[in-house]
Amino acid sequence: MELSLAAVLFYSLAALAAGTAVAAVVAEDPSRAAAWLLGTLAAVSGVSFLLGAYPAGAAQLLAAVGGSAALRRAGARPAASEVAARLRAGAGWWAVATAAGLLLFGTFAVTLAGGDATPADRASAGDDSGISFDAYLLPIGLVAVHLLVALAAAAYLARGPRPPQDAAAPQPAGAPAP
Amino acid sequence: MSADVGLTHYLLLGALLFACGATGVAVKRNASGAFVGVGLMLVAAAVNFVAFAHFNPAFRTEGWAFALLVAVLGAAGAAVGVAVALAYARGRGTADVDAARDLKG
What we know:
The structure holds 2 protein chains of 2 kinds.
Chain A: H1 5-26, H2 30-50, H3 54-75, H4 80-86, H5 91-114, H6 119-124, H7 137-157, H8 165-168
Helix pairs in contact in A: 1-2, 1-5, 2-3, 2-5
Chain B: H1 7-27, H2 31-55, H3 60-92
Helix pairs in contact in B: 1-2, 2-3
């Protein structure tokens, strides 16, 4: 049975995505589950790159990093130091993460350098079979505005508690101490 | 014997991811854990869109565009959802979704 390089990359990325997805569901700690979700999103981004969907893969990677960071921050409310202590990884986890990262960047290298021509290459070569998002500029613009409003609303909702009024009000000079 | 990767393989991957996400939403009691499941389901949809776009050239532009929209909307939804859960947990002292009965009809 012959396995092409693309097939090897697909099976590796699929195993990474499936394994991290199952781990995200099984994990009891929300911050740990969010960290596993980051692995799933990165693997799916690699699958998108493998299929030549470069814009979608890049957007998934960016959204994965930002969303997972927010999830991890909110999943462990007590204190940042406690979160860091819970997410501290040993040598084995570092090895797994390094292998996953190398797999992801290997996929990027294979698809961008040795695989299909990029849309820019096709455009420079006069090939009109590239992708044009002209018909979807308005929906994509609306979604971008929606994302901006959603992030502003999220920042407003997630703001910390206000300090008490008595502590914030300046004390007049010469006033007796309580 | 060749072992080419076809559309079925990508659909199976998407189905597995969706099943994991649905299980997480149904099982998790913590709101943040439930949002992880929602994220998995959105990722599964994106896999399907990208796969169909690759194997059906007539659907290529639409598949890529919808995959982009799914990624961005998933990030926006996760941000707002987690912020709401955080505000609720700050006020009630718990992020247990079973404890949120204020809007129960």
